[in-house]
Design goal:
This protein is α/β, with parallel strands linked by helices. The protein has helices at about 10-15, 45-50, 65-75, 85-100, 115-120, 140-145, 170-175, 200-205, 240-245, 255-265, 270-290, 310-320, 340-355, and strands at about 30, 80-85, 105-110, 125-130, 150-155, 185, 215-220, 230-235, 305, 325, 325-330, 335. Strands 2-8-7-6-5-3-4 form a seven-stranded mixed beta sheet, sandwiched between helices. α2 (about 45-50) packs antiparallel against α10, α3 runs parallel beside α10 and α4 runs parallel beside α5 (about 115-120). It binds pyridoxal-5'-phosphate.
């Protein structure tokens, strides 16, 4: 086989590394690398999947039943709901709809690792605004980064991978600074895990009529434990969601994922009980890490962040050797998902020895 294939690939795509997934874990190890839900699906969800066997037919391309259920749930019309094969699909659709060559998309960095690639795929230019103190969004700097070339701004709250939320007051002040025709994507993939009362909640307090430029993204992957089925949703103005529907790959939301999501909405109380357990486990884990000497940013998702900096790959290898597969971001830090209860003690044992070896004054350590 020759090294070069005889077709021309867009240079920015040829230069783009493929999406890197959190590492898989062997049978003995805990997989804490992809912010998944450690609980197995509810029996009712398994039953819904068993029932949905007509796979010789295409699914309903509009996922009308799920849109209807979510519309009722959030007091909007079905046109103000859009379903995607994971919320990452909707992110991509919105970027393709809003931005192209010469346009810019602003987001905080470090944040969700899919953002830069999706912006480049749209042909647009990523504008990354460094996180501020506490690994939180610096919304003033983000507003200042908006120019007449900006076509979208993404706010990730809680921020993956660092953990803190944007507050409602901060978000409101941010919106007030932005042009009203600028698309604002509020990525709330981990919203259900949030316990901070001042956090922005795009679906509780946001009026589509008041802020028609804001689209809220949520997912069934995390709190509802359906990551493997690929189903997420957006709530926003019909015109923006129609544009996302136009750029979507048709028919990518399967009947099985729609059915499982509908069943999960019906079993929401039971699922949110699990979410409370995970959030409490997260708080315990974060508190114990702080006691060990780690400087842990406010953890509001189903994960914690260790700012291991230059020691990241070495520390990740130590977690792996100890049976915990974590998510390293070379040179920056390690994200550890809150998984099974039995994983907590293991993580803490390894973390204790890693923090001890960090030099005095290291960013991952709390000031003495
Ligand atoms: C911030 C954020 N947004 C969106 C997603 C995408 O989730 P999904 O496509 O599974 O709905 C993720 C997944 O890790 C995420 O962390």
């Amino acid at each position: 086989m020759t090294e070069d294939a005889p077709v021309r690939i867009r240079p920015e795509i040829a230069a783009l590394p493929p999406y890197k997934q959190g590492k898989q874990a062997g049978p003995e190890a805990f997989k804490l690398s992809s912010n998944e839900n450690p609980y197995e699906p509810l029996p009712a969800v398994v039953e819904a999947l068993r029932r949905t066997v007509g796979v010789n037919r295409y699914p309903d391309a509009t996922a009308a039943r799920l849109r209807q259920a979510l519309a009722v749930r959030f007091g909007v019309t079905p046109d103000e709901v859009h379903i995607g094969a994971g919320s990452v699909s909707i992110l991509s659709q919105l970027m393709l709809a809003a931005a192209g060559p010469g346009d810019e998309i602003v987001y905080a960095w470090r944040s969700f690792e899919a953002y830069p690639g999706l912006v480049l795929i749209a042909g647009a230019t990523p504008i990354e605004v460094p996180l501020g103190p506490g690994a939180r969004h610096d919304l003033d700097a983000m507003a200042a980064a908006v120019t007449d070339r900006t076509r979208a701004v993404i706010v990730c709250t809680p921020n993956n991978p660092t953990g803190p939320v944007v507050t409602q007051a901060e978000f409101d002040a941010f919106l007030a600074k932005l042009p009203p025709d600028l698309l604002v994507i509020l990525d709330e993939a981990y919203a259900e895990f949030v316990t901070e009362p001042d956090a922005v909640d795009g679906l509780r307090r946001l009026g589509i009529a008041d802020h028609p430029n804001v689209v809220v993204l949520r997912t069934f992957s995390k709190a509802y434990g359906l990551a493997g089925l690929r189903v997420g949703y957006a709530i926003g103005h019909r015109r923006i969601l129609d544009a996302a529907r136009s750029t979507a790959v048709p028919l990518s939301v399967t009947a099985q994922s729609e059915e499982a999501a509908l069943t999960s909405l019906q079993a929401e109380d039971e699922l949110l009980e699990r979410v409370h357990t995970i959030a409490a486990r997260r708080d315990r884990l974060a508190a114990a890490l702080r006691t060990q000497g780690w400087d842990i940013p406010d953890a509001q998702g189903n994960f914690v962040w260790l700012a291991t900096g230059g020691q990241t790959m070495d520390a990740a290898a130590r977690f792996e050797d100890g049976g915990c597969i974590v998510r390293p971001f070379a040179g920056d830090g390690i994200r550890i998902s809150v998984g099974e209860e039995e994983a907590v003690e293991k993580v803490l044992q390894i973390a204790a020895s890693v923090v001890e070896d960090l030099p005095e004054g290291h960013a991952g350590r709390a000031l003495a």
